[in-house]
Amino acid sequence: MTALQMSFRNPNVEAYYQHMINDNGLKKIQAICAIMRKLLMSIASIIRDNSEFDGAKFYKIPINQ
């Protein structure tokens, strides 16, 4: 549920979601699973480095959007 909410509320995660669907041809559920995995890796690095979530590190939005 966190991945689903983040894909609607965070612009960087939403851009990654759209990228996975439009550019990589994934189905919506596959894109959500990709976000889940990436969020888990982000959480692990946040705990390891004792830092805050940075959407720009999650996915950099292309300039042409």
SSE map:
Blueprint: H1 2-9, H2 11-22, H3 28-49, H4 55-58
Helix pairs in contact: 1-2, 1-3, 2-3
How would you explain this protein's 3D organization?
The N and C termini lie far apart (26 Å). Helices cover 71% and strands 0% of the residues. The model has no long low-confidence stretch (mean pLDDT 92). It has one domain (2-47). The chain is an all-alpha fold. Helix 1 (2-9) crosses helix 2 (11-22).
Q: What keyword list fits this structure?
A:
65 residues, mainly alpha, 4 helices, globular
| Helix amount | over 70%
Strand content: under 5%
What is the first-to-last residue Cα distance?
26 Å
**What is the SS-derived class?**
mainly alpha
**Uncertain runs with pLDDT below 50, 5 residues or more?**
none
> How is the main sheet built?
none
Average of pLDDT = 92
Count of distinct structural domains: 1
Instruction: Give the number of DSSP strands.
Output: 0
This entry's quaternary arrangement is single chain
User: What's the alpha carbon Rg, rounded to whole Å?
Assistant: 12 Å
Give the overall shape, derived from the CA principal axes.
Answer: globular
List SSEs in N-to-C order: HHHH
Please count the helical segments.
4
